[in-house]
Amino acid sequence: MDQQETIQDIRERLVKIEVLLGNMSDATKLQLDNLIDKLKVSNHRIDDLEKANTWLWRTIAGSLIAGVVGLLLK
Length: 74
Fold this sequence. Notes:
Helix content is about 95%, strand content about 0%. With about 70 residues, it is mostly helical. The longest helix is centred in the middle third of the chain and has 72 residues, at about 1-74. This is Hemolysin XhlA.
C-alpha cells in the first residue's frame, strides 16, 4: 500500500504541475499578444512622425526657395 500511495501522490503532483504549466502558457501568450499590439502601435506612431518630418523639411525647402526667388525679383 505504501508504494501505491507514493505513486498516487506523484500523479497528483504531476497533475498540479501540468495545470500550472498550462496557466503559465496562457499568461505568456497574453503577454506576447499585448507586446505585439504595442509594437504595431509604436510602428504606426513612428510612421506618422516620419511623415510629419518629411512635411516639415518640404515646408522649409519651399520657404527657402520662395525667399531666394523673392530676393532675385527685387
